[in-house]
Amino acid sequence: MINKESYKLHNGDCLKIMDKLIEEGLKVDAVICDPPYGINLTPQRIGSKFKDTKVANDNSLEWLPEFVDKTYDVTKNVAVVFCGWQHIDKFKMAFEKKFIVKNILVWNKDWFGMGNNYRPNYELILLLCKTNIKTHSNNKSNILTYRRIAPQKLNHSCEKPIKLMEDLIVELTNPNELILDPFMGSGSTGVACMNTGRKFIGIELDKNYFEISKNRIEDATEKIIAV
Asked: pTM for the complete prediction?
């Protein structure tokens, strides 16, 4: 049952906070996250309030090896990590040192982005495990089609659709299980957890996005409790 005790949010450095969670002996049922891609992204979506605003901490992947180790230590089995085509090789090689790369999923945005020639219309998702993964439906395509959020509706320049996050959560976890998002952003994973009856731990470094996440997850919880 979802209630106000179903989630815990941390404002701070995810590597330090993950250390504390590991020291406390916490094991989550899945890590699901959308970290910086290391591509020094500056969004150019026309009509978006994030146009020409660089994505924070997106200019380096120095944090990746340490993050892989901590993700392995904190999850019981499953990890789901978004990444871009530009550094899929680096993400895959880093996680293969600890995890089995079970699959590489494709998020088809169903609405291509800015650019010329072959305009970008997808992002990649590493599906990782320690032993094995079986989706609940047992017949999922590795292409997940969910239209990206319209620029004027974004809470974060890299925000993912809640329905996409719900799809991943429902297929890979069970009700009342615990999910960790170390790069919480605007809180879409947390909202999706509340909507699907999962427990949630979120970590976000940026104070502004932390407050946005907190408000969105609180609102989602209140709506569920009120039903």
From this structure: 0.90
Q: What is the pLDDT of residue 83?
A: 95
pLDDT of residue 24: 97
- Angstrom distance (rounded) from CA 25 to CA 28: 10
CB-count burial class (<10 Å; 0-12, 13-18, 19+) for 155: middle
**Amino acid in position 17:** I
Indicate the SS3 state at residue 192: helix
pLDDT(44) > 50: no
- Give the integer Cα–Cα distance in Å for 127 and 105: 7
Strand-strand pairing, 178-181 and 28-33? parallel
Radius of gyration, alpha carbons of the chain: 17
How distant, in Å, are the alpha carbons of 27, 80, 205 from that of 21?
A: 8, 19, 16
- In 75-205, which ranges are continuous DSSP H helix? 88-96, 162-172, 188-195
Q: Which two tokens stand for residue 46?
A: 């026309």
DSSP tag of 20: H
**C-alpha distances in angstroms, 110 versus 88, 178, 223?**
21, 30, 29
CA distances from 61 to 71, 88, 101, 103, 157 (A): 15, 12, 19, 22, 19
Q: Which H or E run includes 74?
A: helix 64-74
Does residue 58 contact residue 83 with C-beta atoms inside 8 Å?
A: no
Q: How far is CA 227 from the centre of its chain?
A: 27
**Whose CA is closest to 83, among 45, 128, 149?**
128
